Amino acid sequence: MLSKLSVRSTLATLAVFGLLATAPSAVATSRDAVATPAAAPASDTSPSAGVTVKLPDRVADHLGAGREALIDAVSTDVLSQSHDAKGLAPANAVSKLAAEGREVVVDVRTASPGWARGVAYVEAPRTVHSQPEGWLFIAHRENGRWVSGLEGDPEFTDHVATSPLVGKAERKTMMDYARRVTSDKEASPTAATANTGGLLLPWMPDYYMTLTGGPHSHTGGSGYWSSLDFAGGNASGRVRSSREGTATSMCGAGGGWTRVIHPGGFSTDYYHMWNTTYYNGTSIGSSALLGTIGTDVCAGGSATGAHVHWSLRTYDANLFGQYTWLNGRTIGGWTWWNGSSQYTGCATRLGYTACPGTAIYNRTS
């Protein structure tokens, strides 16, 4: 008899290549995705074996027979960059993650001849303070092979500059961060207060939410303390973008994770939201509605109370495509400082100090 893991891996592999008439809920849950049309199944050693693939029919038609190679290329890139999969062969990495109840997802959303674009992510463990790893990707078919570029790496930068799947306005914003370089001094938390280009906290200006978690790692583990948690307040629970930019719903329609790329070298993540607006590389204004505080775990993790997990990312020379430090940076009129341990840090403004449990007004200056 097959084990649960074997059954799950088999189902996931079948779903990748369209051999299931209806994809089971554990395999592809996005409302705007369907199972891939029939193709030759991947071998057990294929980088995409066991990977969950979301591929609408209209996109599969553009990709044709090359879709298997595309999924292999993106899967290889994802597993090489994932913190929890580095150093493992792709098949071993997917099996390890599956044994932990976690999926690797490749969501191909748009395509044109020789080009494909979408989102890929590795689900977080179903534990408190865990957060997923995710990337936008653009892939180009060059000399008969797919070259995948994940957000933040050189291939992605090159593809943004030339892909017909990136609009003029979006390219301007994305190139601003994709090619941005800062000096070592500017990239140090010990330097003078860093300019974040007027980023706001994730709700309307002059309203408040309560700080429930000071600076901490995006994953709750190692890494720069890039994230803050907020709940309650008088903003009606509505989560809004920290600045104008290009927004993408990382989990697809109905999922509670959105990433916004801003001019000036920063992007922001918002997780655990309910009632989300679906965006797919969509230009939005500052304070655009993204969703409401919630407990959504569309890409893993855990949330015991409705809140928004907000994270800061940058593309400095030293932190290329990574979550970055908050210490010393000013967001929403407040300068944020690390505490003695994760979640305990506070913010200062005009001589006032706000620590976890404090209501904080979102200020534009």
From TrEMBL:
Q: Which residues form the signal peptide?
A: 1-28
Does the keyword field hold Signal? Answer: yes
Q: Which InterPro entries match?
A: Dup_hybrid_motif
Q: Does the keyword Signal apply?
A: yes
Q: Which superkingdom does the taxonomy of this entry point to?
A: Bacteria
Q: Which UniProt keywords apply?
A: Signal
Query: What protein name does the entry list?
Result: Peptidase M23
Lineage at the top is:
Bacteria, Bacillati, Actinomycetota, Actinomycetes, Kitasatosporales
